[in-house]
Design brief:
Layout: H1 3-10, E1 20-34, E2 37-50, E3 55-57, E4 63-65, H2 75-96, H3 112-115, E5 155-157, E6 164-173, E7 176-185
Antiparallel strand pairs: 1-2, 3-4, 5-6, 6-7
Family: Belongs to the 5'-AMP-activated protein kinase beta subunit family.
GO molecular function, one term: kinase activity
Organism: Lynx pardinus
Amino acid sequence: MSLLSGLMGSYTGGFLSQLKMEVLSMIIFKIGELDGRDEFETGFMNCFHPLFQPVVTSQLGTINNLIHVKKSDFEVFDALKLDSMESSETSCRDLSSSPPGPYGQEMYVFRSEERFKSPPILPPHLLQVILNKDTNISCDPALLPEPNHVMLNHLYALSIKDSVMVLSATHRYKKKYVTTLLYKPI
């Protein structure tokens, strides 16, 4: 008794049309003809065998899907292949050429307004350092609130109090936040 007929015998009622078997299958594709001979390509995949679709049993008893592949199935793939080859040729040409404009050996001369520009101002969300904030009485002072994502991986110099400078950096490891403090007497 085959595996398929054993399964069919054990199921009764309306479930028979919905029954599927999951097995490791070898699928054989006929991909064309070469010099009058058929060309085949094989592959293994974990798939389902619906009872209403054709299957083939091999000599070893393995149940394989039977798939009929027509030449018309590959017309879309041929068009996509041709299109990708054309687009890769144009992109290679664009990358090999130099950008337009004059080239020379003269050194660039900075104008006075370019040379002495001041650095940009600090964004306001980076000014809200969590170590400078006061904590509620009900909260544990050793626990800090969750930092804003833009505050991570930055070095902060905190307010100098009692002639001690404090540097801090906050890093995230998975779901935990670690704040490192460095104290330097001035």
